[in-house]
Predict the 3D structure of the following.
Amino acid sequence: MAKVQRNAFVCQNCGAVSTKWSGKCTGCGEWNTIVEEASNAPPPGSGLNKGSKGRVIPLEGLKGEHDEAPRLATGLSELDRVTGGGIVPGSALLIGGEPGIGKSTLLLQLSAAIAMRGGSAVYFSGEEAAAQVRLRAERLGLADAKVGFAAETNLADILATLADGPAPDLIVIDSIQTLWADALDSAPGTVSQVRAATQSLIRYAKLAGSALLLVGHVTKDGQIAGPKVIEHMVDTVLYFEGDQGHTFRILRAVKNRFGPTDEIGVFEMGQNGLAEVTNPSELFLGDRDSKAPGAAVFAGIEGTRPLLVEMQALVAPSSLGTPRRAVVGWDSSRLSMLLAVLDARCGVSFGQADVYLNIAGGLRITAPAADLAAAAALLSSLSNVALPNDEIYFGEISLSGAVRPTAHMATRLKEAQKLGFKRAVIPAAGEIETKSLGIEIRRISHLRELAERMGACQGRPGRAVKDS
Ligand code: TYD
Ligand code: MG
């Protein structure tokens, strides 16, 4: 009997396979994501049932000889920091980010940096023509770097090129969605194409010991497009994020088999491409208008590095039945919680006011320790009293209004002192490992203490904070 080649219908969002087309994926619930793809799966019953005998593998313990993963120092210290000390040869990294955020620029600079340190780097671009990339390299002053470049999207050609000659230290694919394997019928960017291309490239990189860097497109809600399998296949997933309206960019690891995932790398996009920012606090506090009410400086920690940022609040009388609450860079449900705690536990009502909260510079903050700084900014704007401009805040606020201790207090205080801050409002509990930091520390155990100090309780008129 002739074999019937049956096509599969694959969801381009989650990778779920079904036998017939439908408008909505039953796996992830997305609409219009199902595409017909040629099925390359072996017919059922071909694998285990065949009766091929396996070989017995000797099992070993977890203890034993192992080598520390070697690292390819890239020359970009912020990238080294995020990857945990440099890229591991033979590993695969996926870097996602919105269009125009600077992924291609970063990878071009990275390739050039590696080439200039005597390594070998090849860059395959499927998105831009050679002339475009050359123009950019020229503008960035990298045209002399010995980077092998080709504008190519055919997977077989790329693999043949790589196999011809010594294995490079770094392979850049910009982007994985543009590649196509002609062995497969489906269009570039479909799940099976992306999966096949990633698989072949990773296999090559592992065998040859080259570091593989893949650029991945993101969907409209900021996730790397394509099935999650790609994220599972690679060793490291990085996101390059930032705001088009601001110049700085943040590189964040969300998965890393060879290092921590909480470190961030900070870059600034300028005339000459991406520049590394080694002291991000200075950048984020750069153009501070310290006399305005509603601004409080939060002493945060990103990974192992302290990061001071300004939180800005605006509390304005509302003409709407349901006042507006708008947040940029922070969690809006966290703001609602904070407003409820201020109302219920401290007697400060924001019920008739529009409330806006913004993290200066376009940074996104998720740490709960930012609660106290956000509360200080809100109270300051409500009572129209500027906070002392040499004061920092950190501490998590619980639903009871209690200010809870946070980790790394000494590191936060030291960074604040380094940048010239003289006072700190911090949680009452928790040890500070280092004494005599040269900072006047006020420890509070309840949010009410801050509200009372700002004169915000029960609509009492504001008074100056300086003399308190
Ligand atoms: P690009 O690396 O092409 O982004 P992606 O690959 O993530 O889509 O970055 C393009 C943007 O960066 C573009 O909007 C212009 C800006 N840019 C600069 O501001 N300065 C520069 O030196 C370069 C090369 C780009
Ligand atoms: Mg690009």
